[in-house]
Amino acid sequence: MPIDSGDTSWMLISTGLVLLMIPALGFFEAGLIRSKNALSVLMQTFSGLAILSVLWFVIGFTLVYSPPSGGIIGGLNWTFFNGVPVNKSLDYAPTIPGVTFATYQMMFAVITPLLITGAFAERMKWSAFVVFIIAWSIFIYYPLAHWVWGRGWLAHMGVFDFAGGIVIHTSAGMGAIAAALVLGRRRNFGPDIMVPHNIPLAVIGATMLWLGWFGFNAGSALASGSLAGNTLLVSQIASATSAIVWIGLSWRRSKKPSTTAVINGAIAGLAGVTPASGFISAQNSFFLGIVLGFASYYGILLLKEHLKIDDVLDVGSVHGITGIVGSLAIGLVASVVINPAGPNGLFYGNFAQLGIQALGVAVAAALGFGGTIIIMKVINKVIGLRVKEEEEEIGLDITQHAERSYVE
Amino acid sequence: MPIDSGDTSWMLISTGLVLLMIPALGFFEAGLIRSKNALSVLMQTFSGLAILSVLWFVIGFTLVYSPPSGGIIGGLNWTFFNGVPVNKSLDYAPTIPGVTFATYQMMFAVITPLLITGAFAERMKWSAFVVFIIAWSIFIYYPLAHWVWGRGWLAHMGVFDFAGGIVIHTSAGMGAIAAALVLGRRRNFGPDIMVPHNIPLAVIGATMLWLGWFGFNAGSALASGSLAGNTLLVSQIASATSAIVWIGLSWRRSKKPSTTAVINGAIAGLAGVTPASGFISAQNSFFLGIVLGFASYYGILLLKEHLKIDDVLDVGSVHGITGIVGSLAIGLVASVVINPAGPNGLFYGNFAQLGIQALGVAVAAALGFGGTIIIMKVINKVIGLRVKEEEEEIGLDITQHAERSYVE
Amino acid sequence: MPIDSGDTSWMLISTGLVLLMIPALGFFEAGLIRSKNALSVLMQTFSGLAILSVLWFVIGFTLVYSPPSGGIIGGLNWTFFNGVPVNKSLDYAPTIPGVTFATYQMMFAVITPLLITGAFAERMKWSAFVVFIIAWSIFIYYPLAHWVWGRGWLAHMGVFDFAGGIVIHTSAGMGAIAAALVLGRRRNFGPDIMVPHNIPLAVIGATMLWLGWFGFNAGSALASGSLAGNTLLVSQIASATSAIVWIGLSWRRSKKPSTTAVINGAIAGLAGVTPASGFISAQNSFFLGIVLGFASYYGILLLKEHLKIDDVLDVGSVHGITGIVGSLAIGLVASVVINPAGPNGLFYGNFAQLGIQALGVAVAAALGFGGTIIIMKVINKVIGLRVKEEEEEIGLDITQHAERSYVE
Amino acid sequence: MKRIDLIIPHERLHEVNDLLRKHQVGGLTVYDVKGRGRAKHEPVAIGRGVMRYIPEFGSRTKIEVVVSDLNSKSIIEDVLKLISTGAASDGKVFVYDVAEAYDIGSKEQGEKSI
Amino acid sequence: MKRIDLIIPHERLHEVNDLLRKHQVGGLTVYDVKGRGRAKHEPVAIGRGVMRYIPEFGSRTKIEVVVSDLNSKSIIEDVLKLISTGAASDGKVFVYDVAEAYDIGSKEQGEKSI
Amino acid sequence: MKRIDLIIPHERLHEVNDLLRKHQVGGLTVYDVKGRGRAKHEPVAIGRGVMRYIPEFGSRTKIEVVVSDLNSKSIIEDVLKLISTGAASDGKVFVYDVAEAYDIGSKEQGEKSI
Ligand SMILES: Nc1ncnc2c1ncn2[C@@H]1O[C@H](COP(=O)(O)OP(=O)(O)O)[C@@H](O)[C@H]1O
Ligand SMILES: Nc1ncnc2c1ncn2[C@@H]1O[C@H](COP(=O)(O)OP(=O)(O)O)[C@@H](O)[C@H]1O
Ligand SMILES: Nc1ncnc2c1ncn2[C@@H]1O[C@H](COP(=O)(O)OP(=O)(O)O)[C@@H](O)[C@H]1O
Question: For chains A and E, what is the number of CB pairs under 8 angstroms?
Answer without folding.
Answer: 20
